[in-house]
Amino acid sequence: MNAVPEQYISLDEYFKLEETGEIKHEYYRGAIFAVTGASMAHNQIVAAAGGSLDRQLDNKSCQPFFGDFRLKIAAAEVYTYPDISVVCGDVKLDDGRSDTFLNPTVLIEVLSESTEAYDRIEKAEFYRTIPSLREYIFIAQDRPHIERYLRQAHGWLFTEYSSPDEEVVLDSIGCILTLAEVYKRVRFETAR
Length: 192
Fold this sequence. Notes:
The protein is an alpha+beta fold. Helix content is 22%, strand content 33%.
């Protein structure tokens, strides 16, 4: 996502743009932000993590969705495209929209240099307002590193993982992501 707003438009104009435009945009209180192309590492991580979750969720009441399924965060007036979303039970759709859901259980974002600050600060704050959300995950693409936030009775429990043999247990959906699997195709640049 481009951190600078492209322009300010109404919600109706935003939906028309999304239906006819060639690129996706995130929407925040009238401002739209282009969601631009992702790096090879970003795509490799989404494919590995998403594929793992898809296999583990087979025959369960939860299902994963990938970057083209839009999330409405009502409390913040935000429409966004998480890299990976998991919804448990029935998918609740925004009124009159078959492409926008409301009730994620897990959200996963692959961090990039251009959007990391926004993802960690504003977007994380927006995510925490979603009543159905139980866990959200940040995955670095420049090094093996995953951060997990688990909803607790009085806040969010933070855990981080950096070793290839570590497992990230997603309690809310009964799944495990190993760092080795998430990063299996990613080649990190070495220091010179």
